[in-house]
Design goal:
It is a single chain. By secondary structure, the protein is of the alpha/beta class. It has two domains: about 5-80, Orthogonal Bundle (Arc Repressor Mutant, subunit A), CATH 1.10.10; about 90-305, D-Maltodextrin-Binding Protein, domain 2 (3-Layer(aba) Sandwich), CATH 3.40.190.290. It has twelve helices and eleven strands. The strands form two sheets. Strands 3, 4, 5, 6, 7, 8, 9, 10 and 11 form a nine-stranded mixed β-sheet that branches. Strands 1-2 form a two-stranded antiparallel sheet. The longest helix has 18 residues, at about 60-80. The protein is elongated.
Length: about 300
Amino acid sequence: MKHSDYSLIPTFVAIFEEKNFTKAAKRLGITQSAVSQSVNRLRVIFEDTLFIRGSHGITPTPLAIDVYPTLASSVESIAYMLPVHKNFIPAECERRFGISALSVFGFTLLPELSTLMSSEAPLASVKIEPLLGRDMTNELRAQQCDLVIEVMTNQRSNLRSKVIMQDSLQLLCRTDHPRLTGDSITIDEFLNEKHVTHSQFDKNDAYLIGRGLQGEGILGQRNVAWQASSIMEMLPVIMRTDYIGLLPKTAVAQYTQIHNLKPLETPFLTDPIEVAMFWHSSRTNDPSHRWFRGLCAKAASLYTR
């Protein structure tokens, strides 16, 4: 690529993110004809079609998807050097931030975040959306979402991440369970009982399967009788049946009495659970995004303090 071709990079990024030539032209303040000419030059440079027109907008080719993070990061790095971005003031921020998270964080981490947001950035807003069953890598890349908050996993190796809190698993049963009368449970008892799990609607396995936990072999042998769409939906089911279920320990302490449940020690499941936030590399240097990540980490530390 010649030096004179570097001016085409913002056009590439705008088309990729807008998925529409007209919207990209409007965003850049140029004509659609100029955008089309830039695309033709980019296709020659990369020796690839890059963008394919369809009935539902523009679809990037695999090569375009591969080079987008680097090009987007370069455009944003330059933009963030300008004074308007350097002088980021949370109290004046009117941006809406998007988080995709497991439902359990709506009862733990996210309320802490709401308190901090209302104090430090009263003009900003946050939209929380469910995590399961969505292609979060593409949504983060296209800036349709700012952060994903879930259990740390190597399944998102193409994203940036930071561990913000640590938790552990807690097994629950109803207080008058006919067989589990003690304070702990053995592996045989664990496998002989029926379980309630938190499952992804587009997958048959429970959420914890495939997360790299040392106890995954045991978890995979559970007799699953009920698959709930969220962690908090598991509590009333456990209370009304003989089913048992594993939940995050920090989340269940305040609900055991409400739902007439008791915790059981599981000496065979001692893995710590790390909770992380994930984001796309192109947002790393964005001052508002960096501030928001710091606020999420602060909320996590306050909740677990």
